[in-house]
Design a protein that fits this description.
Order of helices and strands: HHHHEHEHEHEEHEHEEEHEEEHEEEHEHE
Strand content: 15-25%
Shape: elongated
Structural class: alpha+beta
Number of helices: 13
CATH superfamily of the largest domain: Bira Bifunctional Protein, Domain 2
CATH topology of the largest domain: BirA Bifunctional Protein, domain 2
Number of domains: 2
Length: 428
RNA sequence: GCCGAGGUAGCAAAGUCUGGCCCAACGCGCCGGCCUUGAAAGCCGGUUCUCCAUCCGGGGAGCAGGAGUUCAAAUCUCCUCCUCGGCGCCA
């Protein structure tokens, strides 16, 4: 969420930024927010004055009791007695306004970085870099959907039986490749200064809210019935929640976490999209990077995270492009976002494998993640960043497609060969 | 799941039975100031959130979270969460 003080003092700046999103709702919400905030402050002033009065009377009563002046005490108590009711009355109104205020504040998106390109939708994202080459196939490459079927690596039909659509049984060498990818991932993350973590995959509502996953994306996450627990759509949620309501030290920045977890997504808004295979599923494993730092360093860190993802995909020899996500496609939390889109020969297009975001102070403010330059110095709000390294199942689809051979076998990428006892997945 | 003990500021630790001198003691760390040639010691102010005020400054809230009783709650009552120990169950 945005800084309410900045909203009060510099509303024009924020309005100009919100306008870039070309969504009138945000402007309306913002104006309502300012109104609510004014109401709130007015009421708070009144309430605080009443409390002050009550505190004063309480003290007087206390003194009179010591002197045992009964008549005066009764008079004061009579006077004091009416105040709590008034406070309660105003406070109830104030609390409601506060709820409305928070409702708006939680839905107003982050400020966009000036280098975010303007655009209506993902068609207007800007390609900023390409790496590697498309594989030169002398045959018509198969899709991962066909490959996993032919090579007996995934069973979708039976998963439909046990669990429904968008589930899968991963089988045989693909299971081994998954673990190879995980081991390769954590090796790179360790070298790049990330602390390895496997987080809980169920988290409380306020952690989801703090990360920006709620309330805006309520339909996209699974909730446990009768409990205030959600299945995480990404380990970003527990990993940024890790330091919730903490005060960190600047000397420790950047704090980097390399998290591995299963992720659960309803894919509510994706009906009809990527319905076949394991490209888009309700559950998958993902290796994620998280960084906590401050405003001085977060843009450098943003590049560092993306570079780490690039190094990983380069090690696998996958041809990709780096994309600067435009205003219409960026979402509410990130101030700037780069995607890494890899080449899918069967689809003849680039598909998203990695998304790197600088959330600036937007998440950290919600989660009360602060830092000090030194002990005794005032606290400031941290910056948080996140990036995919690899979503395993999607990564596998990309590898399968790019490493397929004319004879129908799949070559195992060089860097993964040391983790498995085969160099090819062979058609039986 | 049951029983017991707990949750107090950056850390550490009193206060809870017996409500008010608790805007939370004594420490430790750190920040600012005074003092000093400099430092240490000493002294003063600070070290969470928030409101008003350009500045000086003045309020309010906060003792795991919420609700209640009361003129007044860290302290009493109820609900929830979490931690630790014991028992049970279990991969």
């Amino acid at each position: 969420m945005l800084d309410i003080k900045l909203i009060r003092e510099n509303s024009d700046l924020i309005l100009n930024n919100l306008e870039k999103r070309r969504n009138k709702d945000y402007i309306i919400m913002f104006k309502q927010l300012i109104e609510k905030d004014n109401n709130w402050r007015e009421l708070k002033k009144q309430i605080d004055e009443l409390r002050k009065k009550r505190n004063e009377l309480t003290k007087e009563i206390q003194l009179l009791k010591q002197k045992n002046e009964k008549v005066a005490i009764n008079k004061k108590i009579k006077e004091a007695k009416i105040i709590p009711k008034k406070i309660k009355e105003l406070d109830d109104i104030c609390k409601n306004i506060e709820i409305e205020k928070k409702f708006l504040l939680l839905r107003i998106p982050n400020l966009l970085h000036e280098t975010v390109p303007f655009g209506e939708d993902k068609g207007e994202n800007i390609i900023v870099k390409k790496w590697g080459k498309k594989p030169d196939f002398r045959f018509s490459p198969k899709s991962h959907v066909d490959l996993v079927k032919i090579l007996n690596l995934v069973d979708i039909e039976r998963a439909a039986k046990t669990s429904g659509t968008r589930f899968y049984f991963l089988k045989n060498q693909l299971v081994e490749l998954e673990f190879a990818l995980i081991l390769h991932s954590i090796r790179i993350l360790k070298e790049r200064g990330f602390n390895l973590i496997i987080p809980p995959t169920l988290v409380r509502g306020f952690i989801m809210e703090g990360g920006g996953f709620l309330p805006t994306f309520k339909e996209d996450v699974y909730k446990i019935e009768d409990e205030d627990l959600y299945l995480v759509g990404t380990s970003e949620a527990p990993l940024v929640g890790f330091h919730e309501d903490e005060i960190l030290y600047e000397k420790d920045f950047p704090i980097r976490y390399g998290g591995f977890s299963t992720c659960f997504r309803t894919e509510a808004g994706a009906h009809g999209k990527d319905t076949k295979g394991i490209f888009r599923t309700h559950h998958f494993e993902k290796v994620e990077m998280i960084s906590i730092t401050n405003s001085n360093r977060s843009w450098g860190e943003f590049d560092y995270l993306f570079e780490t993802a690039e190094l990983f995909w380069q090690s696998l020899g996958i041809h990709y492009q780096k994309v600067n996500i435009c205003t219409g496609d960026i979402g509410i939390v990130a101030s700037k976002k780069y995607d890494l889109e890899a080449w899918y020969p069967s689809q003849n297009q680039y598909r998203e494998l990695v998304s790197t975001s600088n959330c600036t102070d937007y998440q950290a403010r919600r989660l009360k993640i602060r830092y000090r330059e030194k002990d005794g110095m005032p606290t400031k709000i941290c910056h948080t960043l996140n990036s995919t390294l690899i979503a395993i199942q999607r990564g596998l689809t990309c590898i399968l497609e790019n490493y397929q051979k004319e004879d129908g076998n799949i070559e195992v990428p060089k860097v993964l060969q040391k983790y498995v006892d085969f160099k090819e997945i062979i058609l039986k």
